[in-house]
Automatic annotation (TrEMBL):
<dbReference type="Pfam" id="PF02466">
    <property type="entry name" value="Tim17"/>
</dbReference>
<dbReference type="InterPro" id="IPR019531">
    <property type="entry name" value="Pmp4"/>
</dbReference>
<protein>
    <submittedName>
        <fullName>PXMP4 protein</fullName>
    </submittedName>
</protein>
<dbReference type="GO" id="GO:0005778">
    <property type="term" value="C:peroxisomal membrane"/>
</dbReference>
């Protein structure tokens, strides 16, 4: 037993020594990026899938758990692959050109986005929409910082909020099929299901009566 413990400690020392080698830093950063992408993807998707599945999806418990596991795995895998691809291409470009320039980031992310998130499925679609909203905010702030757009005299956020809510509810009421399925489900629960009840049970306690399905 003691020999096994000594061997394990020696292995850990060797691993720690390897991790301190600067010449391997870029390659090791790519590997840790893969690890962090997998972990972060699972942390983000698992609770979201759990809530959305049990709130809006029908089916047996086994089917619901399978759906949650599949969504979590897909998000975790895709994010891990993307981070691995992005950081790998960043390191390669920096090595080839001898320095890091802004275009490297754009190019590496474009390639990673095409390869990993190019398939049009519910998970990828949700991630792209999440990023799109933040990109629009970021580009708006950057335009002001660079002087391309004058600094607003008043906070534009109330107007933005009004236009976004006005547009999304108009789409929901008259062009519902254009909205992402999970958003449709959420809005149906909020705005359609609240129009229907039979007694106190499905007015205050439940959303729908079990015998009305």
């Amino acid at each position: 037993m003691a020999g096994g413990g000594d061997a394990l400690r020696a292995l850990l020392r060797a691993a720690n020594a390897l991790l301190q080698q600067r010449r391997y830093h870029a390659a090791l950063a790519v590997l840790k990026g893969f690890r962090n992408g997998a972990v972060y993807g699972a942390k983000i998707r698992a609770p979201h899938a759990l809530v959305m599945t049990f709130l809006f999806k029908s089916g047996s418990l086994r089917e619901k758990l399978k759906s949650i596991a599949q969504a979590t795995y897909t998000h975790s895998r895709n994010l891990a692959y993307f981070v691995f691809t992005y950081k790998g291409l960043m390191a390669l470009q920096s090595r080839l050109q001898g320095k890091k320039i802004p275009f490297h980031s754009f190019f590496a992310a474009c390639i990673g986005g095409w390869l990993v998130f190019g398939e049009n499925n519910p998970i990828n679609s949700q991630i792209i929409m999440y990023l799109l909203s933040r990109i629009l905010f970021g580009l708006s702030r950057l335009a002001v910082e660079k002087g391309y757009v004058p600094q607003p005299k008043q906070d534009p956020f109330p107007l933005v909020a009004a236009l976004i809510w006005g547009t999304v509810l108009w789409l929901f009421e008259y062009h519902r099929q254009t909205l992402q399925p999970s958003l449709q489900s959420s809005m149906t629960y909020l705005y359609d299901d609240s129009n229907v009840w039979h007694d106190v049970s499905d007015f205050l306690i439940y959303n729908k009566r079990t015998d009305s399905k």
